[in-house]
């Protein structure tokens, strides 16, 4: 593994140092672009064909672009979402050479039979059906020669172009970050031992869970370029014609089995299928001669007294098998608890608890506005007020939280966004089978509320769900009230909450005092003008009658009296109007 990554990184560094116009890869890209007629513009069909011809790197870029509905027209998103990296298959000589190169022996010494015609061919690898010497039927995935070098050169070329022409993010999308994440994902997928590890871990987690299967990896016949696993049989959930042959009850039981198992993957195992669309879940035929069983789906019942058989969804006659383990998600115990807390807080309408939780999964890009954060959480909880649990879409709920955080300029932990995509995908798979099964119910069934009380100790199943929820909310409120009060006081002490107090009475009194003060000041000024004017008029007693200076003083005195009378009248009018 380490040697493979080192070799890949060396190829990438060498490719980046080389001038793009001197490499053959750029010429290949230009030749692909010349193949098509652009008289009608670059249509969705032409776009898909170009990306498929360019190979795995550009196929993945197109698949990511299909999720950007905000920036691309719907017809392009729909076309790119169906993008598959289908290419001409390798000839059998090339396949045999790859197997011998990496496994050290010819194909006929490793397998009893090996079908020359591939089951499927993609730009990274192709799959052949084979048989081991003990009769076990297997699928053998063989990586294409040169694909590692092609991917390394593609990313080096893309990075050079972005460095030259893209100086900042466009349309709110971190394009360079997206390409870097895609490069890291491609490194993992190119080394088939990573998928082998996923197969082993997933198989071990689900081994023993009734009606749930997954391929087993054969490690002695697996390396970085060759992967050998069980050959799977079954019908895809996306096969609607086949689904019509099943009863509605059987489809609902299969949907319940998928929902229960996926909830176990996330909350119990902490390792889940991150791409559980309807093409990656197969429906297995019933086993002949095995009697039908009726326990709850996937997980064995630990205590028959804790729930009645009438409340459990019986297992279906058919089983399920998960395939394609290139995209997997892993959750730590802390992340699983955060997910539980998010769901619990929204269901219990606990905005304070939701605020505590989201601040652990989101990093602010600036200063935290705790008041705005609390208001946002209250709005989120308010969206689900009065909504029945059966109407909740868990993926939409998490998506709403992620969207609200991003609008408030928070960077969300990738584990939550990846999980949201997986949940939305599995909800779509389940809805294909039955609209009556809700993933959220199976997540809740695996969560212990921690309140440790029964609503009816003798007959809990007879309780009205609405009454039960009200009592649960009341108990939760009593438990959390002291915590919320302490949190509010702590936020107030740290200046995280601004308090607005209404001093309307005091403000009116202060206004009256201020107005009276202005009146008094104006009155003193007017009195001063009057006294000064009178002194000027009486100046003849000191300067003598008829002198020029006496005449000037009298004119100024009369003018001052006139001005004083005018301002006295203005003051009187303002006092009447309370100005």
Task: Label this structure with key terms.
579 residues, alpha+beta, 5-stranded antiparallel β-sheet, 4-stranded mixed β-sheet, 22 helices, 13 strands, 56% helix, elongated
Commentary on this structure:
This protein has 579 residues and is of the alpha+beta class. Among the domains are: 2-88 and 147-190, no CATH class; 92-145 and 202-300 and 308-322, no CATH class; 504-577. 56% of the residues lie in helices and 8% in strands. The radius of gyration is 38 Å and the shape is elongated.
Q: Average pLDDT, to the nearest integer? A: 77
What class would the helix/strand composition place it in?
alpha+beta
Number of helices: 22
Shape: elongated
Rg, please?
A: 38 Å
Low-confidence stretches: 18-22, 292-310, 449-471
Give me the count of strands.
13
The main β sheet shows up as: 5 strands, antiparallel
In what range is the share of β-strand residues? Answer: 5-15%
Helix content range: 55-70%
How far the N terminus sits from the C terminus, by CA atoms, comes to: 85 Å
Summary of the model, kept short:
With 579 residues, the chain is of the alpha+beta class. The protein contains 22 helices and 13 strands. Among the domains are: 2-88 and 147-190, no CATH class; 92-145 and 202-300 and 308-322, no CATH class; 504-577.
Compile the SSE list and pairings.
Layout: H1 2-17, H2 24-34, H3 44-54, H4 56-65, H5 74-81, H6 92-103, H7 107-110, E1 113-114, E2 120-121, E3 125-131, E4 137-143, H8 147-165, H9 175-190, H10 192-206, E5 212-213, E6 226-230, E7 235-236, H11 240-243, H12 248-269, E8 271-273, E9 281-284, E10 319-322, E11 328-330, H13 333-347, H14 351-361, E12 362-364, H15 370-383, H16 394-407, E13 410-412, H17 414-433, H18 439-445, H19 465-493, H20 504-537, H21 540-543, H22 548-577
Parallel strand pairs: 5-10
Antiparallel strand pairs: 1-3, 2-3, 3-4, 4-6, 7-9, 8-11, 9-10, 12-13
């Amino acid at each position: 593994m380490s040697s493979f990554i080192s070799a890949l990184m060396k190829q990438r560094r060498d490719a980046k140092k080389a001038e793009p116009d001197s490499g053959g890869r750029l010429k290949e890209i230009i030749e692909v672009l010349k193949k098509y007629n652009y008289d009608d513009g670059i249509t969705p069909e032409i776009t898909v064909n170009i990306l498929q011809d360019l190979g795995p790197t550009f196929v993945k870029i197109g698949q990511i672009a299909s999720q950007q509905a905000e920036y691309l027209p719907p017809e392009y998103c729909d076309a790119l979402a169906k993008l598959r990296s289908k290419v001409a298959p390798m000839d059998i000589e090339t396949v045999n050479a790859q197997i011998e190169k990496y496994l050290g022996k010819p194909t006929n010494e490793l397998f009893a039979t090996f079908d020359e015609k591939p089951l499927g061919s993609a730009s990274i690898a192709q799959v052949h059906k084979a048989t081991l010497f003990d009769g076990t039927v297997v699928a053998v995935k063989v990586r294409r020669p040169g694909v590692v070098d092609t991917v390394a050169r593609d990313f080096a070329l893309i990075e050079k172009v972005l460095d030259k022409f893209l100086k900042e993010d466009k349309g709110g999308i971190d394009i360079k970050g997206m390409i870097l994440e895609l490069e890291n994902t491609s490194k993992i997928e190119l080394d088939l031992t990573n998928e082998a590890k996923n197969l082993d871990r997933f198989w071990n987690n689900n081994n023993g869970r009734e009606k749930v299967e997954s391929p087993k990896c054969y490690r002695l016949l697996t390396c970085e370029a060759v992967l050998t696993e069980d050959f799977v049989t079954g019908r895809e959930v996306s096969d609607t014609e086949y689904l019509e042959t099943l009863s509605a009850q059987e489809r609902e039981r299969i949907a319940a089995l998928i929902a229960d198992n996926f909830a176990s993957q996330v909350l119990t195992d902490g390792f889940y299928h991150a791409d559980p669309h309807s093409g990656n879940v197969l429906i297995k035929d019933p086993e002949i001669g095995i009697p039908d069983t009726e326990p709850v789906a996937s997980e064995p019942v630990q205590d028959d007294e804790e729930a009645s058989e009438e409340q459990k969804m019986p297992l279906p006659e058919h089983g399920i098998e998960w395939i394609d383990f290139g995209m997997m998600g892993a959750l730590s115990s802390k992340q699983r608890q955060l997910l539980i807390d998010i769901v619990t807080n929204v269901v219990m309408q606990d905005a304070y608890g939701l605020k505590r939780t989201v601040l652990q999964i989101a990093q602010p890009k600036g200063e935290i506005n705790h008041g705005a954060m609390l208001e946002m959480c209250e709005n989120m909880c308010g969206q689900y007020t009065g909504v029945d649990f059966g109407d909740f879409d868990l993926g939409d709920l998490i998506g709403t939280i992620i969207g609200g955080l991003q609008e408030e300029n928070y960077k969300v932990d990738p584990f939550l966004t990846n999980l949201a995509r997986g949940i939305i995908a599995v909800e779509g798979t389940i809805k294909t089978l039955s609209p009556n099964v809700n993933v959220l119910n199976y997540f809740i069934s695996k969560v212990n509320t921690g309140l440790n009380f029964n609503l009816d100790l003798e007959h809990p199943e007879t309780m009205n769900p609405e009454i039960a929820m009200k009592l649960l909310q009341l108990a939760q409120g009593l438990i959390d009230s002291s915590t919320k009060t302490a949190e509010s006081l702590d936020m107030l002490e740290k200046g995280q909450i601004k308090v607005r107090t209404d001093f309307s009475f005091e403000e009116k009194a202060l206004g009256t005092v201020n107005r009276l003060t202005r009146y008094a000041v104006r009155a003193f000024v007017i009195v001063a003008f009057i006294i000064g004017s009178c002194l000027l008029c009486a100046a003849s007693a000191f300067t003598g009658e008829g002198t020029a200076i006496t005449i000037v003083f009298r004119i100024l005195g009369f003018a001052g009296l006139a001005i004083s009378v005018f301002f006295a009248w203005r003051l009187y009018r303002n006092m009447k109007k309370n100005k």
